Structure formats: structure tokens, C-alpha cells
């Protein structure tokens, strides 16, 4: 149970920071958490690929932040090209 709470808190912080940096405003509590948690998964995977060990909560937030920024960038690229645009 503690791990889930930590993951959600790290996701919230990372997602909020990434959304502020990438969009200039937050995306809302739920979307900040979703982007942060998915960013943590992506960032952790990428960190593992290049051999970076993530041990502290601060490192987890940084890795999740970087992953969330990448996700927001990719989402914007897809929406901008019309791939995910609603009709």
C-alpha cells in the first residue's frame, strides 16, 4: 500500500512539474498523475537502458519528470500532425 501512495505522489509531483514546464499550466490533478506515472515508467526504462540506477525519491521524481516531458512532447507532436486530432 505504501508503494502505491509513493508512486502516486511521485507521479503527481513529476506530472505537475512537467505540465507546467511544457504547457505553462497544470493539466488537472488526474492528468498530472497519469502523465507523471507513465513518465516514471518511461523514464525508469530509459534510465535502465543507459545504466543509471534510481535509488532515492528525488532521483525518481527527476526521472519521472524527464519521462513526463517526453510524453507531453510526443503527444503534442502527434496532435499537431493530426494523428490524434478529433474530427
Give an account of the 3D structure:
By secondary structure, this protein is mainly alpha-helical. The chain has one domain. It has three helices and no strands. Helix 1 packs across helix 2 (29-49) and helix 2 crosses helix 3. The model has no long low-confidence stretch (mean pLDDT 80).
Which properties best describe this structure?
mainly alpha; 87 residues; 77% helix
Give a quick precis of the structure.
The chain is mainly alpha-helical. Helices cover 77% and strands 0% of the residues.
Low-confidence segments, given as residue ranges, are none
Q: Tell me how many strands there are.
A: 0
- Could you state the order of secondary-structure elements as H and E? HHH
Q: How large, in whole angstroms, is the Cα Rg?
A: 13 Å
- Average pLDDT reading: 80
Helix content: over 70%
Largest sheet: none
Task: Please tally the helical runs, counting DSSP H or I stretches of 4 or more residues.
Answer: 3
First-last Cα distance: 41 Å
> Strand portion, in percent?
under 5%
Shape from CA axes? globular
- Secondary structure class reads mainly alpha
Number of domains: 1
Q: How is the secondary structure organized here?
A:
Layout (H helix, E strand, L loop, with lengths): L1 H22 L5 H21 L7 H24 L7
Amino acid at each position: 500500500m505504501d508503494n502505491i501512495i509513493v508512486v502516486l505522489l511521485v507521479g503527481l509531483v513529476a506530472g505537475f512539474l512537467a505540465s507546467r514546464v511544457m504547457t505553462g499550466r497544470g493539466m488537472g490533478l488526474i492528468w498530472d498523475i497519469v502523465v507523471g506515472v507513465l513518465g516514471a515508467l518511461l523514464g525508469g526504462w530509459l534510465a535502465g537502458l543507459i545504466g543509471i540506477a534510481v535509488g532515492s525519491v528525488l532521483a525518481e521524481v527527476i526521472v519521472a519528470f524527464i519521462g513526463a516531458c517526453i510524453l507531453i512532447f510526443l503527444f503534442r507532436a502527434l496532435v499537431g500532425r493530426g494523428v490524434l486530432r478529433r474530427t
